[in-house]
Amino acid sequence: MRASSSLSSSSSVLRDLPVLLVAVVWGSSFLAVQRVAEPGTVVAMLVLRFGMVLPVLGLVARRALRGLSRTEWLGGAGLGVVLSGIFLLETYGAVHTSATNAGLIISLAMVLTPLGESALSRTAPPRAFLAAAGLAVLGVALLTGDGGLRPPTLGDLLVLCAALVRSAYVLTMARVLRNTDMLAVTWVQLVTATAVFCTVALSVGPPPWTLAALYGPAQWAWLLHLSLFCTLFAFFVQMWAVRATSPSRVSLLLGTEPLWAAVFGIAVAGNRMGPLALLGGALVLVATEWGRRTAPAPRQAEEPAPAAEPAPV
């Protein structure tokens, strides 16, 4: 009995580790974006970041793409539109508000996701999980805060919308991708998101090829990091994770992203953290482990979806 419990715990850790690695690379993306983009070149950079992934992923997923049904193509395209909205809202929101507000407000996705999951399943989340999520939000507030929230601005509202859309995105993937080839749908999502960015780039900022010509070797290295690790690896793992575990656990683990951003800021950019920020980082780690152990069980294991009827977007 004890051996069985130990194996189950080890399996849970192995399922959660890739998601935690996604939080790490996403934390490094803040530093990477600072190296390759300015407020006026955000959209052009997103076109390059996503566009570089498409040929590699398309080559790997070419056979699976032929097997996608019309519903799966439409579902992937819908998720791609949502994905593009997350990036645009979060990026432009961060430009128009403080880092304190952006970091705290986007972390609300950790609470919104389990609440949304519970609403869909009509079950109350465990109180311990809600307490862990609340502790994580407090940790993020201390980690990114500089005295508390001020009255909401346009940027605050945009980041809040990004948190709402991010939660909806995780929950939607859990329903749409139960019986779908993940690589193929990832490609459909990224193609759709890139098309949205290209459309926006026609009227916002410089063309992507102009920005690409201005990049040097160091900037191209950072852009490759954003494309291969922060985009391709991250979203593939995220889509796998919502099928192997619950959206609440995925959201909570990804909620450690601000902590890793602080780690990279200290180690690479030379930023400094005060005592309250260090305390906030510790609270995020404690809350993540607590929430991981108390998160609701995956619904997929209890209610498997039939392969012939994929959930619509």
Automatic annotation (TrEMBL):
This is DMT family transporter. The chain crosses the membrane at residues 42-61, 73-92, 98-116, 128-145, 157-177, 184-202, 222-242, 249-267. It comes from the Bacteria. Residues 19-144, 154-287 form the EamA domain. Belongs to the EamA transporter family. The keyword Transmembrane applies. It is found in: Cell membrane. SUPFAM superfamilies: Multidrug resistance efflux transporter EmrE. Keywords: Cell membrane, Membrane, Transmembrane, Transmembrane helix. It is a multi-pass membrane protein. It comes from Streptomyces kaniharaensis. One of its GO terms (cellular component) is plasma membrane.
